[in-house]
Amino acid sequence: MKTVYCILMALLVIPSAGAQNWDIVSTFDDYEAEGWFIFRAPRAGTQVTQNGDGTVTVARLGADSETIYLTRDVSWIEPENTLTVDTWSFTYEVRIRADQIGGPNNGAPDEHGDRISFYPLKNMPDGNVDTYSNGRTWLCSFDQTSIGSRYFANPNLPKAEVDFSEFHVLTFVCSIDYFLYDLKVLEEPLINYGEAFEGDDWPERALGDHSPWTLYLDRNFAEPILLNMPGSGWNGWGAPDVDADGIMQIGFQGNTRGQYTIDYFRTGNGIILDPNEPEGEGTEPSGIDGWELY
């Protein structure tokens, strides 16, 4: 059993809405038994190691390699009737370290450079994936010195400086603003607003206004290090790979290279600002109906 780390908080903001319980807790004592798998395995030039200290290391260090994502089914359940609510949120938290950024590469990463990415993905409750805008996505990337948007090198998007050569706890609160969703998505469903963030239109964040995320570091809930960051309309790979209640992916996209080690993951519906470390073993994996490894 891994060592329990205690972090004292100067101020805890009491969550204001939604369920206040973690639905899934994964301590990575046995990642496969806890419901994690490698998306579209096997992946050339990659390696996943279950460590004896209750952590998992994911590496993409082959010169010729494929994207790799450590993946788990989740249960981020939106209200059935969104006319009765203004916003909806879920929370996920990880303790993670960037062991290495970059590596041998016969290609080249995009203009945003080598990085590790969080991909919390879900589709509309009805599962419709006919347009870019039907997705709900709260993409985030980090390297060994900072964390920010998926569009990592965009100078118009803020980043926070963090030394990820050491472990840190990251608490993400991801939301949907249904008024802005109706205003921006339903009226213009064929526009891929997610790609707008490559340009200079910050803070006019287009679709990002309807799916923002906020990040707290090391459970300092007195002040987030990133606030109301833009989401994206990209809906992952479409049904059935991304379903209506979501999947969580952590890994290396495109031609990015590196290695990370993760200590735990937990998530639940609502805003959950929990000052306590996870306790006990990981939860039993929920059913992953309709999934296959390929």
In words, what does this structure look like?
The structure is a single chain. By secondary structure, the chain is mainly beta. The protein has one domain (24-269): Sandwich (Jelly Rolls), CATH 2.60.120. It is built from one helix and 16 strands. The protein has one helix at 178-186; strands at residues 24-26, 36-38, 46-50, 56-60, 68-73, 87-101, 116-123, 135-137, 140-142, 146-149, 159-161, 168-177, 213-217, 226-229, 247-252, 258-269. Strands 1, 3, 4, 6, 12, 13, 14 and 16 form an eight-stranded antiparallel sheet that branches. A hairpin with a 5-residue loop joins β3 and β4 (56-60). The protein is globular.
Offer a concise description of the structure.
The protein has 294 residues and is mainly beta. The chain is 3% helix and 32% strand.
